[in-house]
Amino acid sequence: MTIQRASTSAGPWTPRVVVQLAVLAGAALTYVTAEILPVGALSAIAADLDISEAVVGSLLAWYAVVAAVSTVPLVRWTAHWPRRRTLLLALACLAVSQVVSALAPTFAVLVIGRTLCAVTHGLLWAVIAPIATRLVPSTHFGRATTAIYIGSSLGLVMGIPSITWVSLSVGWRPAVALVAAAGIAVLLAARAVLPPMELAADQHAVVGAAARHHRNRRLIIVTALTLVVVIGHFISYTFILAIIREVLGIDVVDRAHAVSWLLVGYGIIGVAAMSAVARPLDRRPAAVATGCMSVLCLAFVVLTALAFTDLPTAVTIPVGITMILLWGATAATVSPMLQSAAMRTAPTDPDGASGLYVAAFQIGIAAGSLSGGVLSSHAGLGVMMATSTGLFVAVLIGIVVARRVFDVSSVVGSY
């Protein structure tokens, strides 16, 4: 299999490769900001369009459903395109969608704008990591993927707080316009610095409709693990403010600034954790996966225990904050860890394998958010968090049992 790769004679981290990865990380940051934008602009959009905040909040679930449904068909449709062209299509749709959203006179038009962005969301995430890995040697697979996800995490740390501040200061439409401008800037930068990345003649025979990913046992296992862990995460993450209020005992209204800093810390420690595991992810991916999931399980066992016990806030606040930060650190490593594993299972078509991973991730977001709402409303936060804990434990067991799925020895050098 012949795939275009960067020359390694001067080492993988040449200035050009660093710039290229930075542009890809910028694309991830912009797309994540656009995806979660209704969270930061919730009240402003509701007031301006004269609708309830619950209706605005439904944009997130709708976005995830559209992305999940459209990812695999779009990945197959564009499978034979040069990879840069596919990325530019996704970024162009992002920019146009934000312009439509910023000018939307009604909620229906806003939904149309959000749908356009959601349609190519999965396509971008299916190709962006494979593009990054084609810029470096296969021995730097995990590090290149992690660089992209650092960009997505910065979207939570920087993008959403910025959108919230702009929305509250001058309105949600200027905030959306800023995202549109960022999308256009990243589009132009990607066009300028990335190579076309056309597929080799022999690669055309095994991608798109010719791919047989449904027969790839290793990929199916990784996809299943992805679905379960994302459902478990979003069951509780969707209601993280309620957990902070009810389990930790922190008043999210009177201590809003403290809660905001906790959420920022959640994101920052996630970025730091991804940076820390980047190199080990290339060398010992199974050990990294096992370790991260073990710590995530520990954090949720403790948080669930706090939910079912009546302890003073002098105990629940410091212990709970520590566990939430551990949650942020380990949850952030899941995406690069599993997407790297998915791409390794299909070295002849990493884009198609990545597409299945992304579809599972988006289905997990929608299913987790909806399940969390049902559990929190009818069973309480304790049961909701216990459900997340059980799903995380199941994933940990799956990783331990299927450790060979994360093995790199069989694929390193096969590119």
Descriptive notes:
This protein has 415 residues and is mostly helical. Helix content is 78%, strand content 0%. The relative contact order is 0.15. Residues 1-10, 204-208 and 410-415 have low confidence and may be disordered.
Q: What is the tally of beta strands?
A: 0
Strand portion: under 5%
CATH class of the largest domain: Mainly Alpha
Largest sheet: none
Determine the number of helices (DSSP H or I, runs of at least 4 residues). 15
CATH superfamily of the largest domain: MFS general substrate transporter like domains
Poorly predicted residue ranges: 1-10, 204-208, 410-415
What is the arithmetic mean of pLDDT? Answer: 84
Q: SS-based structural class?
A: mainly alpha
Radius of gyration: 21 Å
Instruction: Using the coordinates shown, work out and report the CATH topology of the largest domain.
Output: Growth Hormone, Chain: A
Q: Separation of termini?
A: 6 Å
CATH architecture of the largest domain: Up-down Bundle
Compact summary:
With 415 residues, the chain is mostly helical.
